Amino acid sequence: MNLATVRPEPRAEARNNAPVALPLAGKTALVTGSTSGIGLAMASALGAQGANVIVNGFGDVDGAVATVKQRSAGSQVGFHAADLARATDIEAMFAYAHQDFGGVDILINNAGIQHVAAIEDFPVERWDAIIALNLTAAFHTTRLVLPGMRARNWGRIINIASVHGLVASTHKAAYVAAKHGLLGFTKVTALETARTGITCNALCPGWVLTPLVQRQVDDRAARDGVPEAQARHDLLLEKQPSGDFVTSEQLAATALFLCSEAANQVRGATWNVDGGWTAQ
Ligand code: NAD
Predict the structure, then answer these.
(1) Taking Cα atoms as reference points, which of 189, 38, 185 lies closest to residue 108?
(2) CA angle 110, 114, 119 (to 5 degrees)
(3) Most buried in the list 15, 68, 87, 243, measured by CB within 10 Å?
(4) What is d(CA 22, CA 66) in angstroms, rounded to the nearest whole number?
């Protein structure tokens, strides 16, 4: 299925003309950092499958909410502006989710930032910000989402980690440390929920051409004095054997599988979607 082409469509009709519910109808999904890139594609895909969606993040909020609404199959779409580096903001977002949506069934911990510098030059403030957003925020969202999921005995938690949760690259100390930590946290969450209807898994993407990676392409073009297209090509081939970017839509389709009943026993997995990066 090409999720890029998913549009709101009339609900499928069964032979007797009774409406057939979409797979995620009645569920509510909270996607952190869903105003851009991978998160926006996840929010759109979940909405298209019938889930109510809570969008979160900075930047073009109106555009992101409009995109999710347009793709969603008439389900409820909300927004919360929580800065996920702050525990109190995350608590306020869950209070909103409970009040306006009756809780969260699908949690996608996606918001993340990057900073590239050698360890001895790494700004302490950037280290703290990356650990807070890329790792600690998932602890807060998970501790707040689990009681409701346990009460309903159903839930999906999907942590957007990275190949950098599995292997390292130079000059990304905070990001690599946070993503390795997130994979450990994913496994603990999966074990603590193993005898319930809640699953927790992680996706480990390779390069995806989102604003987060475009900044690295631009820096590389400036550093090497080459055109942007050449920098993009060089960045890809250095690590990703396929030579192609992973797409946000491919990641969203993987997340939809993890939300399905077929994935009931996929627990604590670290699922690479990386063009062969970690096969080397
Ligand atoms: P992006 O920059 O396009 O989107 C990041 C999102 O996080 C935006 O919606 C932004 O507003 C939000 N955000 C940033 N700071 C926030 C904060 N303090 N509170 C709340 N929201 C905040 O990035 P992306 O490439 O789509 O990355 C999404 C996730 O995927 C990240 O966790 C990233 O580490 C991971 N990832 C990306 C790639 C890639 O190649 N792009 C590869 C592997 C993993």
Answers:
(1) 38
(2) 135
(3) 68
(4) 21
* CA 161 to ligand 1: nearest atom: 44
CA of 64, closest atom in ligand 1: 9
Q: pLDDT by residue (tens digit) across 81-136?
A: 999 999 999 999 999 999 999 999 999 999 999 999 999 999 999 999 999 999 99
Looking at ligand 1, which atom is closest to the CA of residue 134? 32
- Residues with a CB atom less than 6 Å from ligand 1: 33-39, 56-59, 83-85, 110-113, 133, 160, 162, 205, 207-208, 210-213
Which residues belong to the active site? Answer: 175
Instruction: Label residue 4 exposed, middle or buried (CB < 10 Å: 0-12, 13-18, 19+).
Output: middle
User: How far is the centre of ligand 1, averaged over its atoms, from the C-alpha of 139 (Å)?
Assistant: 17
CATH 3.40.50.720, the chain: domain bounds: 3-12+21-206+246-274
DSSP string, 161-209: --GGGTS--TTBHHHHHHHHHHHHHHHHHHHHTTTTTEEEEEEEE--B-
Distance 40 CA to ligand 1 centre (A): 10
Going from the Cα of 189 to the center of ligand 1, the distance in angstroms, rounded, reads 22
Query: Taking the domain 3-12+21-206+246-274, which CATH number applies?
Result: 3.40.50.720
